[in-house]
Design goal:
The chain is mainly β. Strands 1, 2, 3, 4 and 5 form a five-stranded antiparallel beta sheet that branches. It is globular and about 35 Å long. The protein has no helices and five strands. 0% of the residues lie in helices and 75% in strands.
């Protein structure tokens, strides 16, 4: 149903990210402040995405893809600091 990749990032860092999926998925980059989630990036029902996350706040950041369909979906991810 979903894939999530998380890691600690420090303010001032940048992460180039990209992905391709075989079918449309919901995508976001998020981190948590208490019980709230903050979303530096969010896209609904996309097959590809590419950008650079410029980290403004030291946090554990998560890249997350959600498959709302009934069939499995292939996903290729590229993350580079």
């Amino acid at each position: 149903k979903f894939v999530e990749l998380c890691g600690k990032l420090s303010a001032g860092e940048a992460v180039r990210w990209g992905f391709e999926s075989a079918a449309a998925v919901d995508f976001n980059i998020h981190y948590h402040v208490g019980k709230d989630a903050v979303f530096p990036a969010r896209q609904a029902q996309v097959k590809t995405g590419r950008d650079t996350l410029k980290v403004e706040q030291s946090q554990d950041y998560c890249w997350m893809w959600t498959n709302k369909g009934a069939s499995p979906v292939g996903l290729t991810v590229d993350l580079k600091r």
